[in-house]
Hints:
single chain, mainly beta, five-stranded antiparallel sheet, three-stranded antiparallel sheet, globular
Amino acid sequence: MKNLYCIYRIAPEQIVLLLNGERVVTEYRTKTPPCSFGAPRGGTQPVPYQGMWLRFFHSQSINQPDRSKWLYHIGALIMESSPPFQVMAVSKWPILSGREHPYINGHRFFKPRIVFPAGVLENAGGWDVALGINDSLCATVHVKPEQLNL
């Protein structure tokens, strides 16, 4: 049986847990490089990339009590594919940012300017990233290696 790992947190340090059933066997903690557009959070499962792992995450650069002012982004990170899973690089600028206008096709969204990645598949020399938009819509976007901004 292969090991089951859980990425518990990305920033300011990444925490990866080795699990045995419901029990945490080992905890790997490593520092994450800074991100210029907000602390990396959440994201996709890792996929192989140049001998390491690639993940897509979301971050928030504007966080105010008024949700209409929030601004989310999607970035990428490269991490080692074996313990301690050190994050080696983080996007220098966003791959994608939330839509400024709160309306699409005449519909006002609950939370404008929100994007977050949910899953990823390698495809056609890049990756198809499933994402949520404004807590109201799902979509996919194709990301090419040159768009990782690493």
